[in-house]
Amino acid sequence: GKVILKNVKKIYDKNVVAVHDFNLEIEDNEFIVLVGPSGCGKSTTLRMVAGLEEISEGEVYIGDKLVNDMPPKNRDIAMVFQNYALYPHMTVYENMAFSLKLKKVKKQEIDAKVKEAARILGITDYLQRKPKALSGGQKQRVAIGRAIVRNPQVFLMDEPLSNLDAKLRNEMRAEIIKLRKRIQTTFIYVTHDQTEAMTLGDRIVIMKDGFIQQIGTPYEVFNHP
Ligand code: ADP
Ligand code: ADP
Protein backbone atom coordinates (compact mmCIF):
# COMPACT_ATOMS: atom_id res chain seq x y z
CA GLY A 1 0.00 0.00 0.00
CA LYS A 2 0.84 3.65 -0.24
CA VAL A 3 2.30 5.35 2.81
CA ILE A 4 2.20 9.10 3.29
CA LEU A 5 3.98 11.07 5.98
CA LYS A 6 2.86 14.69 6.08
CA ASN A 7 4.63 17.28 8.23
CA VAL A 8 5.45 14.57 10.75
CA LYS A 9 7.24 15.64 13.87
CA LYS A 10 8.37 13.80 17.00
CA ILE A 11 9.14 15.55 20.24
CA TYR A 12 10.17 13.32 23.12
CA ASP A 13 9.70 14.70 26.58
CA LYS A 14 12.30 17.17 27.74
CA ASN A 15 11.79 18.76 24.32
CA VAL A 16 14.08 16.44 22.40
CA VAL A 17 12.99 16.94 18.78
CA ALA A 18 13.87 13.61 17.17
CA VAL A 19 12.10 14.26 13.85
CA HIS A 20 11.34 17.66 12.30
CA ASP A 21 8.73 18.11 9.57
CA PHE A 22 9.15 14.78 7.75
CA ASN A 23 7.40 14.69 4.36
CA LEU A 24 7.35 11.66 2.09
CA GLU A 25 4.91 9.91 -0.25
CA ILE A 26 5.76 6.26 -0.68
CA GLU A 27 4.29 4.45 -3.67
CA ASP A 28 2.61 1.08 -3.54
CA ASN A 29 5.31 -1.65 -3.63
CA GLU A 30 8.14 0.83 -3.42
CA PHE A 31 11.25 -0.03 -1.39
CA ILE A 32 12.27 2.99 0.68
CA VAL A 33 15.43 3.06 2.76
CA LEU A 34 15.91 5.55 5.59
CA VAL A 35 19.63 5.99 6.09
CA GLY A 36 21.83 8.18 8.26
CA PRO A 37 24.04 8.13 11.34
CA SER A 38 22.93 6.88 14.73
CA GLY A 39 20.51 9.26 16.42
CA CYS A 40 19.29 11.02 13.25
CA GLY A 41 15.66 9.91 13.76
CA LYS A 42 15.31 6.89 11.44
CA SER A 43 13.98 4.49 14.00
CA THR A 44 11.61 7.04 15.51
CA THR A 45 10.14 7.70 12.05
CA LEU A 46 9.65 3.98 11.40
CA ARG A 47 8.11 3.45 14.83
CA MET A 48 5.59 6.22 14.17
CA VAL A 49 4.49 4.38 11.01
CA ALA A 50 4.25 1.18 13.06
CA GLY A 51 2.25 2.88 15.81
CA LEU A 52 4.90 2.10 18.42
CA GLU A 53 5.60 5.77 18.99
CA GLU A 54 3.08 8.57 19.26
CA ILE A 55 3.09 11.15 16.45
CA SER A 56 3.61 14.60 18.00
CA GLU A 57 2.48 16.56 14.95
CA GLY A 58 1.48 15.83 11.38
CA GLU A 59 -0.24 12.89 9.72
CA VAL A 60 0.62 9.35 8.72
CA TYR A 61 -1.52 7.50 6.16
CA ILE A 62 -1.31 3.80 5.34
CA GLY A 63 -3.29 2.99 2.22
CA ASP A 64 -5.91 5.70 2.36
CA LYS A 65 -6.35 5.53 6.13
CA LEU A 66 -5.15 8.14 8.57
CA VAL A 67 -3.47 5.99 11.23
CA ASN A 68 -2.37 8.56 13.82
CA ASP A 69 -4.71 7.16 16.47
CA MET A 70 -4.78 3.57 15.25
CA PRO A 71 -3.12 0.93 17.48
CA PRO A 72 -0.34 -1.15 15.88
CA LYS A 73 -2.43 -4.30 15.68
CA ASN A 74 -5.01 -2.56 13.48
CA ARG A 75 -2.43 -1.25 11.03
CA ASP A 76 -1.81 -3.42 8.03
CA ILE A 77 1.91 -3.67 8.74
CA ALA A 78 4.52 -6.16 9.88
CA MET A 79 7.82 -5.23 11.46
CA VAL A 80 11.20 -6.90 11.77
CA PHE A 81 13.62 -5.74 14.45
CA GLN A 82 17.39 -5.88 14.81
CA ASN A 83 17.20 -8.16 17.85
CA TYR A 84 14.69 -10.52 16.10
CA ALA A 85 12.19 -10.34 19.01
CA LEU A 86 11.15 -13.98 18.61
CA TYR A 87 9.04 -15.64 21.28
CA PRO A 88 11.65 -17.77 23.10
CA HIS A 89 9.28 -20.43 24.45
CA MET A 90 7.72 -21.15 21.04
CA THR A 91 9.11 -23.23 18.19
CA VAL A 92 9.89 -21.62 14.85
CA TYR A 93 6.59 -22.95 13.52
CA GLU A 94 4.65 -21.51 16.44
CA ASN A 95 6.45 -18.18 16.16
CA MET A 96 5.41 -17.92 12.53
CA ALA A 97 1.86 -19.15 13.14
CA PHE A 98 1.14 -17.02 16.20
CA SER A 99 -0.27 -13.84 14.68
CA LEU A 100 -2.48 -15.81 12.31
CA LYS A 101 -3.80 -17.88 15.22
CA LEU A 102 -4.72 -14.64 17.00
CA LYS A 103 -6.60 -13.60 13.89
CA LYS A 104 -8.49 -16.92 13.99
CA VAL A 105 -7.23 -17.97 10.57
CA LYS A 106 -8.08 -21.62 9.82
CA LYS A 107 -5.41 -24.13 10.81
CA GLN A 108 -4.99 -25.50 7.31
CA GLU A 109 -4.48 -22.04 5.94
CA ILE A 110 -1.98 -21.19 8.69
CA ASP A 111 -0.11 -24.39 7.98
CA ALA A 112 0.09 -23.63 4.25
CA LYS A 113 1.28 -20.08 4.84
CA VAL A 114 3.90 -21.05 7.41
CA LYS A 115 5.28 -23.81 5.21
CA GLU A 116 5.34 -21.58 2.12
CA ALA A 117 7.20 -18.83 4.00
CA ALA A 118 9.59 -21.41 5.48
CA ARG A 119 10.30 -22.73 1.99
CA ILE A 120 10.95 -19.26 0.59
CA LEU A 121 13.34 -18.49 3.46
CA GLY A 122 15.03 -21.89 3.59
CA ILE A 123 14.09 -22.68 7.19
CA THR A 124 11.88 -25.72 6.65
CA ASP A 125 14.34 -27.94 8.52
CA TYR A 126 14.19 -25.77 11.62
CA LEU A 127 10.44 -25.52 12.15
CA GLN A 128 10.50 -27.62 15.31
CA ARG A 129 13.42 -25.80 16.92
CA LYS A 130 13.26 -23.14 19.59
CA PRO A 131 14.95 -19.81 18.77
CA LYS A 132 17.86 -20.49 21.13
CA ALA A 133 18.90 -23.39 18.91
CA LEU A 134 19.24 -21.14 15.85
CA SER A 135 22.08 -19.03 14.50
CA GLY A 136 21.65 -15.27 14.11
CA GLY A 137 20.96 -15.58 10.39
CA GLN A 138 18.38 -18.30 10.97
CA LYS A 139 16.66 -16.22 13.65
CA GLN A 140 16.44 -13.30 11.29
CA ARG A 141 14.90 -15.54 8.62
CA VAL A 142 12.29 -16.66 11.14
CA ALA A 143 11.56 -13.04 12.06
CA ILE A 144 11.08 -12.22 8.37
CA GLY A 145 8.95 -15.34 7.91
CA ARG A 146 6.77 -14.38 10.87
CA ALA A 147 6.19 -11.03 9.21
CA ILE A 148 5.45 -12.23 5.67
CA VAL A 149 2.87 -14.86 6.62
CA ARG A 150 0.60 -11.94 7.45
CA ASN A 151 0.73 -10.52 3.90
CA PRO A 152 1.18 -7.02 5.25
CA GLN A 153 0.45 -3.99 3.09
CA VAL A 154 3.58 -2.45 4.53
CA PHE A 155 6.73 -4.21 5.70
CA LEU A 156 8.88 -2.28 8.19
CA MET A 157 12.46 -3.32 8.92
CA ASP A 158 14.61 -1.65 11.57
CA GLU A 159 18.33 -2.43 11.10
CA PRO A 160 17.46 -6.08 10.39
CA LEU A 161 21.01 -7.08 9.45
CA SER A 162 23.04 -5.09 11.96
CA ASN A 163 23.54 -7.98 14.37
CA LEU A 164 24.94 -10.30 11.70
CA ASP A 165 28.55 -10.77 10.70
CA ALA A 166 29.69 -9.44 7.32
CA LYS A 167 29.25 -12.71 5.43
CA LEU A 168 25.74 -13.33 6.71
CA ARG A 169 24.85 -9.71 6.17
CA ASN A 170 25.68 -10.03 2.47
CA GLU A 171 23.77 -13.29 2.26
CA MET A 172 20.67 -11.85 3.94
CA ARG A 173 20.83 -8.72 1.84
CA ALA A 174 20.62 -10.90 -1.26
CA GLU A 175 17.78 -12.78 0.41
CA ILE A 176 15.84 -9.56 0.94
CA ILE A 177 16.31 -8.63 -2.72
CA LYS A 178 14.88 -12.03 -3.71
CA LEU A 179 12.04 -11.71 -1.23
CA ARG A 180 11.16 -8.31 -2.58
CA LYS A 181 10.57 -9.81 -6.03
CA ARG A 182 8.32 -12.49 -4.60
CA ILE A 183 5.96 -10.55 -2.38
CA GLN A 184 3.80 -7.55 -3.16
CA THR A 185 4.31 -5.08 -0.37
CA THR A 186 5.72 -1.67 0.38
CA PHE A 187 9.01 -1.73 2.26
CA ILE A 188 10.38 0.86 4.65
CA TYR A 189 13.85 -0.19 5.69
CA VAL A 190 16.04 1.54 8.26
CA THR A 191 19.83 1.21 8.21
CA HIS A 192 23.00 3.15 8.94
CA ASP A 193 24.78 1.11 6.26
CA GLN A 194 25.22 2.90 2.93
CA THR A 195 25.81 -0.30 0.96
CA GLU A 196 22.49 -1.68 2.16
CA ALA A 197 20.79 1.58 1.26
CA MET A 198 22.29 1.71 -2.22
CA THR A 199 21.61 -1.94 -3.08
CA LEU A 200 18.10 -2.25 -1.63
CA GLY A 201 16.36 1.07 -2.09
CA ASP A 202 14.22 2.21 -5.00
CA ARG A 203 14.61 5.55 -3.26
CA ILE A 204 16.85 6.50 -0.38
CA VAL A 205 15.96 9.06 2.26
CA ILE A 206 19.09 10.48 3.84
CA MET A 207 18.46 11.85 7.33
CA LYS A 208 20.60 14.05 9.54
CA ASP A 209 19.78 15.49 12.97
CA GLY A 210 16.08 14.76 12.54
CA PHE A 211 15.82 16.38 9.12
CA ILE A 212 15.57 14.88 5.65
CA GLN A 213 18.75 15.90 3.89
CA GLN A 214 18.10 14.28 0.53
CA ILE A 215 15.64 11.97 -1.22
CA GLY A 216 16.49 10.19 -4.45
CA THR A 217 17.18 6.99 -6.34
CA PRO A 218 20.55 5.35 -5.62
CA TYR A 219 21.74 6.77 -8.96
CA GLU A 220 20.69 10.31 -8.05
CA VAL A 221 22.14 10.11 -4.56
CA PHE A 222 25.42 8.65 -5.80
CA ASN A 223 25.85 11.18 -8.58
CA HIS A 224 24.66 14.28 -6.75
CA PRO A 225 25.70 13.78 -3.13
P1 ADP B 1 18.25 6.49 14.80
O1 ADP B 1 17.25 5.43 14.56
O2 ADP B 1 18.55 7.27 13.56
O3 ADP B 1 19.50 6.01 15.47
P2 ADP B 1 16.40 7.44 16.82
O4 ADP B 1 15.13 7.66 16.11
O5 ADP B 1 16.56 6.21 17.62
O6 ADP B 1 17.60 7.59 15.78
O7 ADP B 1 16.68 8.68 17.78
C1 ADP B 1 16.52 10.02 17.36
C2 ADP B 1 16.75 10.95 18.55
O8 ADP B 1 15.72 10.77 19.50
C3 ADP B 1 18.04 10.70 19.30
O9 ADP B 1 18.53 11.95 19.73
C4 ADP B 1 17.62 9.86 20.47
O10 ADP B 1 18.48 10.03 21.56
C5 ADP B 1 16.24 10.41 20.76
N1 ADP B 1 15.35 9.39 21.36
C6 ADP B 1 15.05 8.19 20.82
N2 ADP B 1 14.19 7.53 21.63
C7 ADP B 1 13.95 8.34 22.67
C8 ADP B 1 13.13 8.22 23.84
N3 ADP B 1 12.39 7.13 24.06
N4 ADP B 1 13.14 9.26 24.72
C9 ADP B 1 13.86 10.36 24.49
N5 ADP B 1 14.65 10.53 23.41
C10 ADP B 1 14.69 9.53 22.51
P1 ADP C 1 -3.32 -27.23 18.61
O1 ADP C 1 -3.60 -25.75 18.37
O2 ADP C 1 -4.54 -28.02 18.97
O3 ADP C 1 -2.15 -27.46 19.50
P2 ADP C 1 -1.61 -27.60 16.34
O4 ADP C 1 -1.18 -26.21 16.46
O5 ADP C 1 -0.66 -28.70 16.70
O6 ADP C 1 -2.96 -27.85 17.17
O7 ADP C 1 -2.16 -27.81 14.85
C1 ADP C 1 -2.09 -29.00 14.15
C2 ADP C 1 -1.65 -28.82 12.68
O8 ADP C 1 -0.88 -27.63 12.52
C3 ADP C 1 -0.75 -29.95 12.28
O9 ADP C 1 -1.45 -30.83 11.42
C4 ADP C 1 0.40 -29.32 11.58
O10 ADP C 1 0.22 -29.31 10.17
C5 ADP C 1 0.40 -27.93 12.01
N1 ADP C 1 1.43 -27.71 13.04
C6 ADP C 1 1.23 -27.22 14.29
N2 ADP C 1 2.36 -27.11 14.97
C7 ADP C 1 3.32 -27.52 14.13
C8 ADP C 1 4.71 -27.67 14.25
N3 ADP C 1 5.38 -27.33 15.37
N4 ADP C 1 5.39 -28.12 13.19
C9 ADP C 1 4.77 -28.44 12.05
N5 ADP C 1 3.46 -28.35 11.90
C10 ADP C 1 2.74 -27.91 12.92
TrEMBL record:
Q: Which domain of life is it from?
A: Bacteria
Q: Which GO terms describe its cellular component?
A: ATP-binding cassette (ABC) transporter complex, substrate-binding subunit-containing
Record-annotated ABC transporter domain positions? 3-225
> What would be the name of the gene that encodes this protein?
ugpC
Q: Which organism is it from?
A: Wansuia hejianensis
One example GO MF annotation? ABC-type transporter activity
**Range covered out of full length:** 2 to 226 of 372
Sorted alphabetically, the keyword list is: ATP-binding, Nucleotide-binding, Transport
Q: Name any Gene Ontology BP term.
A: carbohydrate transport
- Would you tell me the protein name for this molecule? sn-glycerol-3-phosphate ABC transporter ATP-binding protein UgpC
According to the record, the segments passing through the membrane are: none
